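Predict the holo structure. Ligand: magnesium ion.
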Amino acid sequence: MSPSDLLVIPFDGWVNAFVRGFLVPNFRPFFRAVQVPVNEVLQAFDGFFAWVPMLVVTLVFAFVAWRVVGRTMAIITVVGFVFIDMIQLWPETMTTLAMILTSVLFCTLIGIPAGILVAGSNMAWKVVRPILDIMQTVPSFVYLVPIVMLFGVGMAPGIIATIIFALPPIIRMTNLGIRNVREDLIEASEAFGATRTQTLIEVQLPLAMRTIMAGLNQTLMLAMSMVVIAALIGAGGLGLIVNTGLGRLNVGQATAGGVGIVILAIVLDRITQGLAEPGSGSKKPLLGSFKSLFRSQDIEAAAPDKAV
Amino acid sequence: MTVKLKVESVFKLFNDTRKEGMALLRDGATKDEIFRSTGVTVGINDVSFEVNEGEIFVIMGLSGSGKSTLVRTLNGLIRPSSGKIFIAGEDVASCDMKRLRAIRRREITMVFQHFALFPHKTVVENVAYGLKVKGVGPTERRKAAIEALAKVGLDAYADSFPGQLSGGMQQRVGLARGLATDPAILLMDEPFGALDPLIRREMQDELIALQKELKKTIVFITHDLNEALLLGNRIAIMKDGAFVQVGTAQDIVSNPADDYVRAFVADIDRSRVFTASDIAQDADHIPLKESVLGALVVMDKAGVDVAHVVDQDGVLAGMVTREALTAVKPNTPVVEVMEPDAPSVTSEAYINEMYATAQNGVLMAVTDSDGKLVGSVEPTAIFGHLTPDTETATEAEEDDGKEDAGPPSDETETEPANIVDAQKEKSL
Ligand SMILES: Nc1ncnc2c1ncn2[C@@H]1O[C@H](COP(=O)(O)OP(=O)(O)OP(=O)(O)O)[C@@H](O)[C@H]1O
Ligand SMILES: [Mg+2]
């Protein structure tokens, strides 16, 4: 005796009917349209990284790692990237990188404004918070089901799945960072006649920047893990190598892909962490590190930006 | 004297969504009762006042009395539940955000208790913030900001970050930021509350000096009555959101309105409240051309042994003692007998500035800014003004009257007791 003897709910049938009978026919153009910008950006990144020589990419990453984190990290970056190239996975790694950057770009474009929005309104936060909670409890694998139904398979659906999966931390941390800005600083800004936008740009965002960067780091790490899983629905890159390796019981190939992912993950993680915690390695302020990329050493050493 | 800020029966109740707190308040319920029965907090309870141009208006009260709430209604950071606040012809309590911003940019700025400097901006960027928000160009605002910094002596630190400065220096930056837009009104919410006592004294003196030159209209919040008495042209004492007394330092110290004020006044430093003119008696003055005989007649009439000599303009010339006068011939001119260096203080001098002069042990002359003799003070008499009157206010007044009217010999008799009192008070 079990409840199913009394009543069987045709849940799968209902969902099928809802998706096939309602969502797909009515919203197909919408789901198509959503893929367009994602595809464009992805292609641009992919093309760019395919075009830039491996050594240049390695040097740029090593330089950024050196400025933001420190010398050791720069060496690890060079060794790691050279290793990836030697095991002949450079093109796949660059595809994965392009996918990650695309996802993170969209996460940033959606997540930071969303975070700002919910930071400004308790009502909005009450609505958004449970959604983020659910998004973070659903296992990454389960995301793929509705994605495939709505967007089909391929590169762009894989990235869309990644964007959705990786979005919560950046929204959360933007919200947190802005809410944690000292009340009296906001009062001070307002007391001098600043508009809300001026307060946001002049005071709240700069002070929330570290927290937002920490959110960006988490988002990036989630994107990293999801981009690999997205290979299941036809996304390429290193994930595909691991996947096919597993499918063919080719332990060597799967391991090689896995190592590539780990190296890329470490490099990206350490760099974004370095951005979130200035002082951990190079002892340089956030913007200073960015600016220093385009400046000579001695200007950087001089006093901070004098413009008021 | 023009009124720069006018507040008309302002109320602020927190969490009063159903207006029940307001109704209770009208029925005469206290802040405590209202909070207990409805959960509504009375922040400001029917406050009205005016502040004149160039005046420092101090609002003082214990923690939770509503000082911060009140000062924040003045620049619209908190909108009052009801009432009117006029600045430059605009009602800040009801105008829209755009007008409010315009007023904040032009008319009124604020200095905060915990400085509230932007840690990611340099000192000069902090000071220039009000100008930047207004849309002033980078070179112009840097120039103005450096000028404001120079006023507080920190122009050398323009490109440091606030975190690199000491507390006192940070608050100077806060003050410079408040001054940079050249507002008519400056709000200061316990600006020196977070500083240690020595630095606080320094900052108070600096504010006084700065105010002499700038003549801003200042609303100054403090919970330190000594600070209030030192800085305030007028002082409002606040309790449970309402003003219990508004007046000059001397008003409040000599006539506390109720027990709450009296409790505050009990342990203040009176030597920094009362000036020579507050405690001076009428001086017996002898014209410079008088003969010794004439001088003795004046002194006999007044029953004193020491008197001051003035020239034809009333300017203090010196002093004579009965001893010296009786030692010479009666027709000798006074000029030949008088001591030209009579101990004297100016009428604005606080009691604590008179101690050094009082150490001579002789009657002190009190002169106005032109050097004219306006009164005199017995050195021992100053102690009488250092102790609070334990009697009620009215009786205290009578006492004061007696003291002034009574002959000097009488006064010296009562003095020792007062000195003992004063010492007791200090040691407690
Ligand atoms: N946002 C708020 N919501 C509810 N109650 C408030 C709020 N702000 C202030 N209050 C209450 O209003 C009263 C006055 O507070 P306020 O901060 O103005 O006091 P204060 O005189 O400045 O005290 P302090 O010397 O501690 O700064 C207090 O009872 C406080 O609890
Ligand atoms: Mg306060």
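Chain A is about 80% helix and 0% strand. Residues 280-284, 293-308 of chain A have pLDDT under 50 and may be disordered.
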